[in-house]
Each structure stands twice: as structure tokens, then as C-alpha cells.
Fold:
Amino acid sequence: MTRTVGLRARVTKEEYSRIQNRAILAGMSVSEYIRQTALGAPIYEVLSKEERQTLTGLSRNLNQLLAFAHKGYVHARQVEEVLAAVKQVLKK
Structure:
């Protein structure tokens, strides 16, 4: 869809900086960020490369634990520890 109508809004330097930082965290341009927030779309922060690698490693561990759990080799405590680590990464 071609966008043909422009909008202007006056903001302070501090407000612009805050908007720009939030757009960067969401992996969007300022225009896209403003469009999405104005239209009520949920905005999510993009995970860093390090966070993605950590989450990938944790998900592998969780899959291995689940495979062992189905065979009866794993205690619930071990699964809880991995789930707590996954939740910690997702909170950031």
C-alpha cells in the first residue's frame, strides 16, 4: 500500500530521543513505530543476538529435559530450573 498522506507532530528533543530509542528497541523506523503505536498495535522489543543465543541454548536444554522426563529420567526440580532461566531471559 502506497502511503500518500503525511503527518506532522511537534515534539521536544527529549521526546524525540525517547521515541527514537523505543523504535530502535522494537527494530522499527521512527515512522513505523509511530504508525504502529497510533493504530494500537502491540510493540515488542527485539532480542539481541546474545539473548537469542541464550534462549536457543535454553530451549535445547528444555527439549532434552522433556525427552528424558518422558522416559522417567528427570526430576521436576531440573525442569523448574530451566524454566526459571528461560523466564529470566524473556523478562529482559
